[in-house]
Specification:
The complex is a heterotrimer of chains A (268), B (454) and C (297). Chain B has two domains: 181 residues, Periplasmic binding protein-like II (D-Maltodextrin-Binding Protein, domain 2, 3-Layer(aba) Sandwich); 197 residues, 3-Layer(aba) Sandwich (D-Maltodextrin-Binding Protein, domain 2). Helix content of chain B is 45%, strand content 13%. Chain B has 19 helices and 13 strands. In chain B, strand 1, helix 2 and strand 2 form a beta-alpha-beta unit. The longest helix of chain B has 33 residues. The radius of gyration of chain B is 26 Å and the shape is globular. Chain C is mainly α and 297 residues long. Helix content of chain C is 75%, strand content 2%. A two-stranded antiparallel sheet of chain C has the order 1-2. The chains are: A mainly alpha (268), B alpha+beta (454), C mainly alpha (297). Chain B: This is Sugar ABC transporter substrate-binding protein. Chain B: It comes from Paenibacillus albidus.
Chain lengths: 268, 454, 297
């Protein structure tokens, strides 16, 4: 029983790792090798020439940079914007609060894909196409983030806030000094999910960007994969270069990321 | 006290918010400048004007900077870059910047970008795409500018030129013809005893002749050699079908007035049936993703594709190949082909200096067709064919005559849509042996009409 | 008193402002703008003629639209249950205490951080005939005779399998982490008590672990269904919608109509159809969940 378990586990891990291992192995092979059986993939000669060629001869690194930059900015700004709004909805008394809450809630039902065509027209009218602003700003209003964060803020007892107010602290101070530190795990969780969402966003950049200096990875990579499939080495090098930074990022922050995802599950 | 702090913090917040945004905006601009490749994003800033003064010519004018979008892959891409570099070197007052876009998305991107005012100064268009682009207002007519720049339209191959003229106006500068031709591996043909003393394949130019040729290849050559390397889907088999359909006397899929689907069903079936047999009888390797590479590495005896492959084969080490027109399988000589042209897309504001520079570039590219011919294309100016540099290049003269055999598409705005969404779709099914040629022709007739009506 | 109230309103508004500005401009306004677009012939370049209800009439009888919606639905049906089974299985594997525990967790999650383009192209190469990883391994272990090939992408059913496998590999990571953390939150005492009562592993899984996972599984299912309905990129790269458009999902059709066929107005109309369908799906799920929830209690 125990052994069966172990064998199944090992098989699953192999299945999951195989494409990645294959990618790395093929990527360091010399171009133009004859491949007769699968074992040939793993035989020398190895070479890093194609890595050099792709890194210097294409804009792949620019696109990785764009993807990381856009994802990072979207992450920071989305969480900031959502935290502010969530705080107002949770802790600030004002008229029409319930109405406002439902307006935000309604946003959950509007899938981005359904509004993408008019969004294109709107962005065009505002001259936002083909710019970093155009990649970032439309992505910042996340009703999900507002609602999730609001529910976390709701969990902070009001007594705590009042004690600060008695000490003479303003609303801004409450937000910065109490609310944000107390909900740091939730904020981190939101940030991580937003980052990954932006990292994988394809449709919007695909439609709105025509300048290859502004491409993000998902749209840049297809431009490098030629019209006809050729040798496997180049595509694999492209895949490898595009993956290594994000995998390193993941391994570095694995604990936080795993925690962040689990957090979102508890509230969701 | 409280009131003030709220006001201040809120202000600070908004400020910091807008700062972040403008910061990333600034980043955007500097980013694209630093990379030196102004295309759409740079359209707004006058990059060229800041060019170093030492570069400007005696006319004292500012250096004109032009963005140029291309769709060329592989050998084509490298050759176009050579042309651009060479042009920039010899024209100190003009700077052309080449941006390569993905082949499959090129036209969508071009139309989109021009539509939102981010289009390039110069672009490439296939002749077959031109009617659609003109119809959508993506390209501008060139007559005034061409006269300004002293372009002599009489120097072009008139057939090619005619396809770029609509309502008496020139819309594009043709730079080549690229017909569908046949390549063969010299060594493999020799092994199979199919190479004549003149170094040309021994083949009877008929339907049976070509089949026999393939049959001999299959029997005489080792098992792992494919007689005929051809893609199993989309472009190349469609081009072969188009060629055979035209050889039978078929005249495009639409009527002359461009409004009605008009497939000559019998001829369409006959052509499709012939090609389907090549697949089912094993002359073409099934669903081979590596058909280019297989021919290149000597595991396929013949190959059919556009002339642009010539440059690729030439740069392959130890590879002895030949090029020839595709066999005359039916009555008339005909093949598929298209032509690359240079266009001046519609821009936000018309800059006559830029336009003049752009057409100078286009005309120069056509004049220097011998460089472009390195990729394999047939130059668009008859005078280039007479240049010694062109004559010295092997292979090209073997197929330069094919240019006159090309059966072009009729100038419909729907040509590309019909090809991509109808012909490819149903013919692919025929090649995969999942649809009979007759069924496919019926479906095509129906869907071509649907496309025309949309 | 009134002043104070107004001040409170203004203060709240300031906090809400950044969100509202973006939300109104890029979510609510496009919704409205989109309605306008559906009544026009509208190209990438400009607004053309007013055509009334034509787009709506057309979309209801357009076979391509309904087929594409059907393909998106097929994708949902193929990926959702398999996703949940796989996710729970992987969570069970990674939950077992062993030297490799952390390794398993990482390896199951890493594909999820890959860019969608990388995951799709990698998958495409893995399933390539002749030289792809899967076919060459099948040849090596002689499951597939040397002179035969499986053409994964030319048969509709095989193409769906490939799309499903690649999607599972690429996206199971998130759900796996959710399931894993849910399993780890089951208190040890409950297991111990069950063991004392003489329950075997099987019984423990079906009677304890699985019931504990039900709430999170429900959530995953809800999110999964809506998200899967919006699939586009991996299919676009892997099959391009083929063969014969038999795997083309609705988002791809919207893209092709809007940008390839240059008909934004009609594409917007399709988007609203999709919107209505998603709305109905959400409402249905909400209703089912609430009813079930009531019964549980």
């Amino acid at each position: 029983m125990k052994w069966l378990y172990r064998i199944i586990s090992a098989c699953m891990a192999t299945l999951f790792a195989a494409p990645l291992v294959w990618m790395l192995v093929v990527s360091i092979k010399e171009e133009g090798m004859k491949i007769i059986t699968v074992l040939d993939w793993f035989k020398p000669p190895y070479s890093l020439d194609v890595y050099k060629e792709i890194l210097t001869g294409t804009k792949l690194t620019v696109w990785i940079g764009n993807s990381l930059l856009v994802a990072a900015l979207v992450m920071v700004l989305t969480v900031a914007v959502a935290a502010l709004a969530g705080f107002a909805l949770s802790k600030l008394p004002f008229r029409y609060r319930t109405l406002m809450f439902f307006v935000v809630l309604a946003g959950l039902l509007i899938p981005g894909e359904a509004t993408i065509i008019p969004l294109y027209q709107v962005a065009k009218d505002m001259d936002l196409l083909n710019s970093y602003q155009g990649l970032i700003i439309p992505a910042l209003a996340s009703p999900v983030a507002v609602i999730v964060l609001k529910s976390f803020f709701d969990g902070i007892p009001n007594d705590l806030l009042e004690s600060v107010q008695i000490d003479g602290g303003g609303t801004w101070r409450i937000f910065i000094r109490i609310i944000l530190p107390l909900t740091r795990p939730a904020l981190a969780s939101m940030a991580i999910l937003t980052f990954i969402g932006s990292w994988n966003n394809f449709l919007w950049p695909f439609l709105s960007i025509t300048d290859d200096n502004l491409f993000t990875l998902p749209m840049g990579i297809p431009t490098l994969m030629g019209q006809y499939s050729e040798d496997y080495v180049k595509p694999m090098v492209i895949n490898a270069i595009a993956s290594i930074p994000i995998i390193i990022l993941f391994v570095t922050f694995e604990r936080q990321i795993v925690k962040g995802i689990s957090m979102s599950g508890i509230k969701g | 006290m409280k009131k003030r702090s709220i006001g201040v913090t809120a202000m600070a917040l908004l400020l910091s918010f807008s700062m972040v945004l403008s910061a990333c905006g600034g980043n955007g601009n500097s980013g694209s400048n630093a990379n030196g490749n102004n295309s759409a994003a740079g359209a707004g800033n006058e990059e060229g004007a800041s060019g170093n003064a030492s570069d400007s010519t005696d006319n004292g004018g500012e250096k004109v900077s032009l963005s140029f979008w291309t769709l060329f892959d592989g050998g084509d891409g490298a050759n176009m870059q050579t042309l651009v570099d060479e042009f920039n070197k010899t024209h100190s007052d003009i700077q052309v910047k080449n941006t390569k876009l993905a082949w499959g998305e090129y036209y969508t991107k071009l139309i989109t970008a021009v539509g939102n005012g981010n289009g390039p100064d110069i672009g490439i268009s296939h002749t077959s795409r031109l009617p659609d682009l003109i119809n959508q207002g993506v390209v501008t007519d060139l007559d005034t500018t061409a006269t300004d720049a002293g372009v002599d339209w009489n120097t072009f191959n008139q057939n090619l030129l005619d396809a770029t003229v609509v309502d008496g106006k020139h819309y594009a500068v043709p730079i080549d013809t690229h017909p569908f031709i046949m390549y063969y591996n010299v060594k493999l043909l020799k092994d199979a005893g199919l190479l004549g003393d003149d170094g040309k394949p021994v083949m009877e130019q008929s339907a049976d002749g070509f089949l026999n040729f393939l049959k001999t290849l299959k029997e005489k050559l080792p098992n792992k050699v494919t007689p005929f390397a051809l893609s199993n889907a989309n472009d190349d088999p469609y081009r072969l079908w188009w060629a055979l359909y035209s050889q039978l006397g078929g005249n495009d899929l639409i009527s002359d007035d461009l409004t009605v689907a008009d497939i000559d069903k019998e001829k369409g079936i006959q052509a499709a049936d012939y090609i389907q047999k090549l697949f089912t009888e094993g002359y073409i390797k099934k669903n081979d993703p590596d058909f280019y590479k297989n021919f290149q590495s000597g595991t396929a005896a013949i190959m059919m594709t556009g002339v642009w492959a010539t440059g690729t084969w030439e740069s392959t080490k130890n590879f002895e190949f030949g090029a020839m027109p595709i066999p005359k399988i039916y009555d008339q000589e005909a093949t598929w082909g298209d032509s690359h042209t240079i266009i001046l897309p519609t821009t936000k504001k018309e800059d006559s200096a830029k336009r003049k520079a752009a057409i100078t570039f286009a005309n120069w590219v056509a004049d220097n067709g011998q460089i472009w011919a390195k990729a394999g294309h047939i130059p668009s100016k008859p005078s280039v064919l007479e240049k010694q540099e062109f004559k010295d290049m092997p292979y090209r003269s073997d197929y330069a005559s094919v240019a006159s055999m090309v059966k072009f598409n009729k100038p419909s705005v729907k040509t590309a849509q019909i090809r991509d969404n109808v012909s490819f779709k149903f013919l692919n099914e025929v090649w995969a042996n999942k649809m009979t040629p007759a069924e496919a022709m019926d479906k095509m007739q129906e869907n071509v009409q649907k496309t025309l009506d949309e | 008193m009134k002043m104070k109230k107004i001040r409170a309103d203004i203060q709240a508004l300031l906090f809400l402002l950044p969100f509202l500005v973006v939300y109104i401009l890029f979510t609510l306004w496009p919704m409205v703008k989109g309605v306008e677009m559906t009544f026009y012939k509208w190209t990438l370049i400009k607004k053309m003629d007013f055509i009334g209800w034509d787009n709506y009439r057309q979309v209801l009888q357009d076979r391509e639209v309904w087929e594409a919606l059907w393909h998106s639905a097929i994708f949902v049906v193929l990926t959702t249950p398999t996703m949940i089974v796989l996710s729970i299985s992987l969570a069970l594997i990674a939950n077992r205490k062993s030297l490799l525990q952390k390794f398993y967790r990482s390896i199951f999650f890493i594909p999820s951080v890959l860019s969608v383009a990388v995951a799709s192209y990698l998958g495409l190469f893995v399933f390539q005939p002749y030289t792809g990883l899967v076919n060459s391994i099948l040849h090596l272990i002689q499951l597939l005779p040397g002179d035969q090939e499986i053409f994964w992408l030319t048969e509709t059913s095989l193409a769906w399998i490939v799309i499903t496998l690649i999607t599972l590999w690429w996206t199971v990571g998130f759900n796996f982490i959710l399931h894993l953390s849910a399993i780890q939150e089951i208190p040890d005492e409950i297991y111990e008590a069950a063991r004392l009562d003489g329950a075997n592993n099987n019984q423990i899984f079906w009677r304890i672990t699985l019931p504990y996972l039900t709430p999170i599984t429900k959530t995953i299912m809800m999110l999964q269904i809506i998200a899967s309905f919006k699939v586009f990129m991996q299919i676009y790269i892997i099959t391009g919608g083929g063969p014969l458009d038999q795997t083309r999902p609705i988002i791809q059709l919207i893209y092709q109509t809007g940008f390839r066929k240059n008909n934004l107005g009609y594409a917007a109309t399709m988007s609203y159809l999709l919107f209505v369908i998603l709305l109905v799906l959400s409402a249905l799920q909400y209703w089912i969940n609430n009813r079930k929830g009531a019964e549980d209690r």
